[in-house]
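Dear support,

I submitted the protein below through the web form. The confirmation email said the job was done, but the results page showed an empty box. After a refresh the structure appeared. I'm attaching both so you can tell me whether what I see now is the final result or a partial one.
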Amino acid sequence: MDDFIAYLDTSEVQAGKLEELKVAMADLAAFVELNEPRILAYRVYFSADGSTMSVLHFHPDVASLEFHMQVAGPKFPPIAPFVKMRSIEVFGRPTEDLVAQLQAKARLLGDATVVVRDLHAGFDRLPDD
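What the results page shows now:
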């Protein structure tokens, strides 16, 4: 799985918006599960005090993350009033076009930075398709 991609974004939750955000993110997770059969995992986490949200997903390859951006991308604007995105980290090798899409998402949802991290060493035990 040399093309494996992990994605992590972190956002501040806007004051008074936690419950609405939780509903929106549960809906988004259900939508992703239904419409993106290749994604390996999609998880939404909140800090104990509800002030921070992180979204973590794993993809078998770059095409899966590109598909996610295409399919789920229209679902991002309604979430904008609930968060201020701080960072997007991609672990793997996205295409330049994908990085541009992620930068656009970062601008839409806050003033986030986009960081790409290349694999140095390691392994996975994920099943091959």
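Response: this is the final, complete result; the empty box was a page-load delay. The two ends are 10 Å apart (CA to CA).
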